[in-house]
Every structure is written in structure tokens, then in C-alpha cells.
Amino acid sequence: MSTNEFQRNRDNFCYRHPDRQSFVLCQRCLRTVCAECQTPAAVGVVCPECLRDQQKAQTPAQRTAQRRWSRSRSVVADSRPLATYAIVGITALSFLLQLIPGFGSNIYEPAMLFWAPYLYPGISGTFEPWRLFTVALVHSGLWHLGLNMLALFMIGRTLEPILGRARFVTLYLLSTLGGSVAVALLSFGTPVVGASGAIFGLFGALLIIGRHLGANVMSIAIILGINLVIGFLPGYNVSWQAHVGGLLTGLLVAFIFTRTRMASQRRTQIWLLAAVGAGLVGLLFVPLFLYG
Are residues 178 and 58 in the same domain? Predict the structure, then answer.
């Protein structure tokens, strides 16, 4: 269901398919276009009308060059959530590696889980920064993996076509980083596994973007709130720190996306996302003063 505000705001829907919501604008006319109506351009995408105008304005030499270089390319953007499928597949493969006797429990999982002291040579005698991200590839069991991948699959199928693959992957990685940083700050000596931080980041992004589009996000907020509260209940072996860190990062990244939609703001968006990543890395210096 959607709110009246959502229905009235036609800018949230493809101008050629009024029943399809989208988060992507044509870089020339700035109209909203769905995945079917998008044609990749040098920066962003263009709508069918702008594409025809470009083609009419081309010289014969330009048309010949375009045919030569784009013979193998499709003129319609692929709307399948391939990044979501890839992340699910890679994470599932990683879990299978954990099941190999002698390799998973003794070598693979210990090298991939997140334990904050491994970031500080002065504390642990080693420096293994990859753990900030590889934590999302290892899980404590089949149920842990299944629930996280089910949530990723369900959210990704909605969110990735709206954001695009590059933004979606950036959101996932920054949310993973945010979850790890929060664990380092709030639970320094606790080993952590799982993609929960990234999943909560996706939840947060879906909340912000859905609200920006005018959708009714109450059900998302309720599900997010229930899952967040579970992490604080006694008896549950859940890293609420990773949940909170991933959620806050996802909210911030999504806010940046909603404020930098236009093609002319692409560079600003990249710089802001880089600033978020740099800020998270900067927070990792705090434990040096607390535990160093």
C-alpha cells in the first residue's frame, strides 16, 4: 500500500509507465525512468525520447562509430538485481567453505571473522584490516546464514533496481564497515560473525528511500524495530552493536542518495560517500585511546 502523498507525486514514477516507481532520472530531461526505459549513457542514463533526439543529431560518422562500439550492448538497462544474487551466492559459497573439515573451523573462519584487536598491531601484534568486511561472509550456522540471506534477497530485489548496482554495492559495503566499526567502539573484545550489520544498513536505506518516495514505510519500521529490540534481549547471542552501526550507516548513505539524485550531483555524491567511509575509518582510532 502507499500513501496519498506517494500517489500524488508523479515524479516518483516512470513517466512512460506510471505504475512503476523509480529512483533514476534521465540525465538530459531529468524525468524519472524505470529500468525498462533506461539507456546507459556516458554519465547516468537517458530516456527513449532523449535517446532519439541524440541519434537524430548525430553525424553519419558518429552513427557509424556508435554501431561499431555498441554492437554487443543492449540498449535496454538490465533491471535484474544481479548484485544481490552475487552477494547471496558468494556468501553461500563462503559458508560451504566453513563446512570443510579442518579448513573451515581451523583456518577459514578464524581468518575472516571480526575481532577488533586484530586491527591494532600494538595490542594484538597483528594488522588484519580485511576483517572489517569479511565478517559478512562467515556465519555461525545455517539458520544465521539463511535468515540474513533471505532478508538480503527480499530487500535487494526492491532496493537494487531503484538505486542501481553500484550504489547498492556501495551501500552494502559501507553498512558492513559501519557495523564493524560500532563493534570496535562498543564491544572491543567480542569476536563477531555475520552480515547482520549490512542487512540492517539495507533496512535503514529502504526506510529512508521509501519515505522519500512517499511510500508507506510503517511496516518496514515495525520489522526493523522488532529485529533491533531482539538484539538487546538477554539470552540472544546477537551483536546489537553491529546492528546499530550498520543501521546508522545505511540511514546516512540513503540520505546522501536522496539528496544527490541528479546527474550533475554525481561527483558530490561520490565525495560524500567517500567522506562517510573516511569518517568510519577515522572512528577506528578511538579504541587506541581507550584500549591502547
Answer: no
* Cβ proximity of 103 and 97 under 8 Å: yes
- Asked whether residue 136 is assigned to any structural domain, the reply reads yes
Domain range for 283: 82-291
Residue with cell 558530490: 268
Is the distance from CB of 272 to CB of 107 less than 8 angstroms?
A: no
pLDDT tens column, 20-56: 878 788 888 888 888 888 887 755 688 888 888 877 7
**Catalytic: 239?**
no
Give the span between the Cα atoms of 77 and 56, in whole angstroms.
21
Residue at 75 is within a domain: no
- Say how far apart CA 74 and CA 36 lie, in whole Å: 11
Query: Residue 212 catalytic?
Result: no
Sign of the CA dihedral with 158 first, then 159, 160, and 163 last: positive
The predicted model gives 102-130 an average pLDDT of: 92
- Residues 178, 201: contact at Cβ < 8 Å? yes
How high is the mean pLDDT of the chain? 85
SS3 at position 262 = coil
Mean pLDDT for 139-150 is: 92
Examine residue 12 and state whether it is found in any structural domain, yes or no: yes
Number of structural domains (the chain) is 2
How confident is the model at residue 75, as a pLDDT? 41
Catalytic pick among 94, 139, 144, 243: 243
Annotated catalytic residue: which of 94, 180, 196, 239? 196
- Kindly report which listed range (42-56, 107-121, 136-150) carries the lowest average pLDDT score: 42-56
Q: Give the pLDDT score at 78.
A: 59
